[in-house]
Amino acid sequence: MKSNSGRNLKLGILIVSGLIVFTLGVYFIGNKQNLFGDSILVSSVFKNVNGLQSGNNVRYSGVNVGTVKNIKFLNDTAICVDMLINRETGSLIKFNSLATINSDGLVGSMVLNILPPDKAPSRTIEEGDTLASLSQIATADMLNTLNKTNENAALLTEDLLKITNSINAGEGVLGDLLKDEGLAKNIQESAENLNRTTNSAKAGLAKLNGILNTIDYENSVAGLLLSDSTAQKSFSTIIEDLQATSLQIKEISAGLGQFSNTLNSEKGALNYVVKDTSFVNHLDQSMQNIEEATFRFNENMEALKHNILFRGYFRKQERQKARMKKENQ
Amino acid sequence: MKFLSSYQQGFNSFFIEIGEMGNFMGRYFRELFSRPFEFREFLNQCYQMGNKSLLLVSVTGFILGLVFTLQSRPTLMEFGAVSWMPSMISISIVREIGPVMIALICAGRIGSSIGAELGSMKVTEQIDAMEVSGTNPFKFLVVTRVLAATCMLPILVIIGDFVALIGSAIIENSKGDVSFTLYFNQVFEALEFTDLIPATVKTFFFGFAIGLVGCFKGYNSKKGTAGVGKASNSAVVFTSMLIFVLDFIAVFITDIFYN
Predict the structure, then answer these.
(1) Which helix (H) or strand (E) holds B220?
(2) Which residues are within 8 A (CB) of B54 and not within 5 positions of it... i.e. 6 or more apart?
């Protein structure tokens, strides 16, 4: 009897353990599907559910908050997705949130995401509410786009192959560029020349830079020219005056040109003076005579100073000069 | 002609055996719902089949989880999908590998044990003696064993699955730094009732098949002690085959209803 009781106890423990494990398994699976908790039924209408199934997760800000309960056609373009959302979390979800269907990873199952709204205030969701939906690009659409891209890439590769073959065959400008040795030499020389020119330009720029660095921008004329705005106005005035002056000079030089033409062509006194060489000789002789006469006149005047009649007058003048000199000192 | 006649004889004996098994099953259901109930013997058989198989099932389940995770891990790593490991392992174990592997082990342990026990009772005429003494041997020996096998196998499978998941979690924890909490969160995230319920229901059929075939082979064993060995052996072979057939039917029906 005692042995039987021990056996029954062990058997009971085994059966209860098995049932507990099974019950816990059922509870956790059901809990994940929101079957046991208090939940809110809300729905959203989509044009395409992209393979969403009953039991798929519903996420709000990346957190699992419920599951898809049912998917049904409303009409040929609208599919209603009912979802069970945990009541506790549901009290945080705003009515103006957007429902969207995405893939959980590239090859994962579909997930219904509820996107939080912008800052616009709204009430929280309630039983039977319908959330606005947002269609997003499905994996299939992405793959279609990728397929088109691949086709284009294949066409491009084919064209590129043709171009490469033509270039290799030496056809066209690029072919010449790659195959023609003379052209290559020319290009090389041009490149060398360009290099030299660049070096020269570099050296020139370095010199110019050195010169510019030596300019005292605050105390020099160059600095004044480059930096003083009032000097700029003065210079513009000077340039305007110079322009006016140059115009006047031009007019004067035109007048002088006309005068010299007249002088060269007509028989005036000046023309005679300028051109007649005998007149010059006469004039030279006259000048010598005048010089000689002047010398003699000076002698006469000196003799006059010593004359008794005029000596007093000259002495009187010398005294006056000496007196004025003294007064000035 | 002799060759053909031997094949025909083989086919005939196969169908005859199927027919006899059908009759045996019919008698089982008749005896199951008729009084008196051999409850004490039923509990004894539950203990023998359940508690005595628990260690074997637990060790097998634990190693199954370990090995399955270790073998799958490198392949999933190649695809960068190691995070899917708990989902994949749990679905595989709960849906298919756990029930089938544990049923096969129980077929080896329980089926052969029933076949040998009833076979030896048959050849030593203990069953005849029970009939003479006024005890219904079918009710006492067959009904209790088949019912015990039917009831205990689901419990063994549930415990075996749980231990296998623990084994898998240990490997994931040591190799991939996945905590036990995260592992079991992902397991229950991946599992659905469509995985758990059909898998549990089919284990009742597996248990029933193990008990019924073991009892049938033992109850109908002939030709002395050699017949006992043959009954035991054929019980294991036939039950193993029947488990795969039942599994296929279960998967087929589940697929029709849930997909």
Answers:
(1) none
(2) A14, B156, B159
Task: Write out the two tokens for A267.
Answer: 């028989």
Cα gap A276→A268, rounded to integer Å? 11
Helix (H) or strand (E) holding A80: strand A78-86
Q: If you count residue pairs, one on A and one on B, with CB atoms under 8 Å apart, how many are there?
A: 58
In a domain, B22, yes or no: no
ipTM: 0.78
Measure the CA–CA gap between A319 and A329, rounded to whole angstroms: 15
Beta strand A130-134 with A39-46: parallel, antiparallel or unpaired?
A: parallel
**Considering CB atoms only, which of A21, A29, A64 is closest to B192?**
A29
Q: String of b and e for A178-204 (b: at least 16 CB within 10 Å)? A: eeeeeeeeeeeeeeeeeeeeeeeeeee
B66 within domain boundaries: yes
Which chain A residue's Cα is nearest to B191?
A: A29
d(CA B105, CA B240): 9
Q: How does pLDDT run across A156-200, given as a tens digit for each residue? A: 999 999 888 888 877 777 777 777 777 778 888 888 999 999 899
* Residue A134: DSSP 8-state: E
Token pair listed for A140: 């299939």
The answer to whether residue B40 neighbours chain A at the CB level (below 8 Å) is: yes
Strand intervals (E) in B189-245: none
Choose among B40, B46, B188: nearest Cβ to A29.
B188
Owning domain of residue B56: 41-258
Q: Are B111 and B218 in contact (CB under 8 A)?
A: no
Q: Where are any strands of DSSP class E within B143-199?
A: none
Chain A residues in contact with B79 by the CB 8 A cut-off are none
C-alpha torsion sign, points B133, B135, B136, B142:
negative
Backbone angles phi, psi at B89, to 5 degrees: -65, -45
Number of domains in chain B: 1
CA distance linking residue B239 with residue B229, whole number of Å: 15
Interacting residues of B233 by C-beta distance below 8 A, sequence separation 6+: B112, B115
pLDDT in tens, A41-67: 899 998 888 888 887 888 888 888 888
Per residue of chain B (259 residues), what is the pLDDT tens digit? 666 777 788 888 888 888 998 999 999 999 888 888 888 889 999 999 999 899 999 999 999 999 999 999 888 888 777 888 888 999 999 999 999 999 999 999 999 999 999 988 888 888 888 888 888 888 889 999 999 999 999 999 999 999 999 999 999 888 877 888 888 888 888 888 888 899 999 999 999 999 999 999 998 888 777 888 888 888 999 999 999 999 999 998 988 887 6
Position B154 in a domain? yes
B-contacting residues of A 31-90, CB under 8 Å?
31-33, 55, 64
The structure's pTM equals 0.61
Per the structure block, which two tokens stand in for A135? 């269609």
Q: Report yes or no on B162 lying in a domain.
A: yes
- Residue A116 is classified by DSSP as P
Q: CA B124, CA B225: separation in Å to the nearest integer?
A: 9
Residues of A in contact with B162 (CB under 8 A): 21, 25
Q: Do B200 and A15 touch (CB under 8 A)?
A: no
Would you call A290 exposed, middle or buried from its count of C-beta atoms within 10 A (0-12, 13-18, 19+)? exposed
